[in-house]
Automatic annotation (TrEMBL):
GO terms for biological process: regulation of DNA-templated transcription. InterPro entries: Arc_rbn_hlx_hlx, CopG, Non-func_TypeII_TA_Antitoxin, Ribbon_hlx_hlx. This is CopG family transcriptional regulator. Gene3D superfamilies: Met repressor-like (1.10.1220.10). Transmembrane segments: none annotated. CDD domains: RHH_CopAso-like. Residues 3-42 form the Ribbon-helix-helix protein CopG domain. PANTHER family: PTHR40688, RIBBON-HELIX-HELIX PROTEIN COPG DOMAIN-CONTAINING PROTEIN (PTHR40688:SF2).
């Protein structure tokens, strides 16, 4: 485990102390948990952006599904004749 020094604004420090006290944990533990959650969120957002760019490129190449096929597929959900997801055909 490494040590990092961080300068906190006074109001952030007050909230941090209150949270740590309420949880009966150290400020370091709270900071570590918060950063772990922030990093996970950033990784998810980066993956979503990558998928968005891939989808935009796919659409630019004409790999799209007609809306009527999608609506038909969605209407079939939960019925005896549930359809497979439509493909782009490319």
């Amino acid at each position: 485990m490494s040590v990092t020094t961080v300068r906190l604004q006074a109001d952030v420090e007050q909230h941090l102390e209150a949270i740590a006290s309420r949880l009966h944990r150290s400020k370091g533990w709270v900071i570590n948990q918060a950063l772990a959650e922030y990093i996970e969120k950033q990784q998810l957002e980066q993956e979503r952006w990558k998928q968005t760019l891939e989808a935009m490129e796919s659409a630019a190449q004409g790999k799209v599904v007609d809306a009527s096929e999608v609506h038909s597929w969605l209407k079939s959900w939960g019925t005896e004749n549930e359809q497979d997801a439509p493909g782009s055909g490319k």
